[in-house]
Design a protein that fits this description.
With 375 residues, this protein is of the alpha/beta class. The chain binds guanosine-5'-triphosphate and magnesium ion.
Amino acid sequence: MALNWFKKKKHKQEEKTPSDRKIDEDSEVLDTEDVADTQPSGNNDDREHQKLENETPPPPHINDQEADQTASKKPSGLFKRLKSGLSKTRKILSTDINELFAGNRKIDDELLEELEEILITSDIGVQTTMDLIQNISIKSSEISGPDQLKNILREKILELLDATTKPSQEIVDKPHVIMVIGVNGVGKTTTIGKLAARFSSSGKKVIIAAADTFRAAAIEQLTIWADRAGVDIIKHKDMSDPAAVAFDGIQAAVARDADIVLVDTAGRLHTRKNLMEELKKIKRTISKKLPGAPHEILLILDATTGQNALSQAELFNDALDVTGIALTKLDGTAKGGIVVSICNALEIPLNYIGVGEKIEDLQEFDPIEFLHALF
Ligand SMILES: Nc1nc2c(ncn2[C@@H]2O[C@H](COP(=O)(O)OP(=O)(O)OP(=O)(O)O)[C@@H](O)[C@H]2O)c(=O)[nH]1
Ligand SMILES: [Mg+2]
């Protein structure tokens, strides 16, 4: 019976064209309003979180000792911060799944429909949700309550998360150039500040290039981050050529024997200018100045924008060959399932997650830790 439900859903899904998911390059992707409207509320309910923590068993393959070890590898409070940041998503996935089985219900089509809604609400995405539900429907005879259901979900989600995880890229070239891209407001500048601080504290000499010359105050904002991180910044005047700033950043890095260059870019340009073309030009200029560079094209996505983030990734990847993703604003969002969706739908590794506005609120993405924070 459950399988019939799945076939019906799959058929419905196949009727959709891929273009349903595409967004118009010149309009929505560059539209500030959507992003501004979806800022996280930032308030986390610690009591709710504590309650869920007490009720929920740890995921498979992760016993409490391992989880504590994972947590203790992080600077103090970071794992806790990830957990509390994900508390809204956790509430959806954990509490709502418990409620599904209220009154001793058994797995049937109706229950699977409700589970589908829960997974989609957390922004796991339609396709990934269908993959998960197919798995559950196959194993439905083994499931008699929420704990078994959650265990099967955890196992499957861990598989999806593991599939795209790559060990952090080794830095061999000097300078190693990271070009940071993404639509406006997603957290490019903030992530650059956080990354600069991380690299700098691990003993690397960092230079930031302020190649977002479009937005008023962008250069000052980046200068503040460079000061906080204690690194050098190369900047020109507002509205100057961004490719020229990137060029100078690399020149300075070579002259000053720097290890890393972080290139900030604009998320939106004058309506008549095409963002992708401008970014391609910056990339070309960097390659001309330093063959082999940029070594990384880091795409910043905002978790609060949900499935729209996937469309952005497709567009940027088509134009610029993205090498990794940093997903920001996971703190306080109910859409933490987007992490699963990104790992399942894209072939780009998820390198970092942002869990707050402070300099220390950037973590390397760790699937087991993430899953432990989620369930
Ligand atoms: N809560 C939270 N806020 C974040 C995070 N990362 C960035 N922000 C906030 O998001 C807002 C936009 O960040 P920016 O770094 O200016 O974004 P941007 O992509 O550089 O924006 P443009 O330069 O306008 O394209 C700021 O208020 C940041 O503090 C995060 O991980 N969590
Ligand atoms: Mg910026």
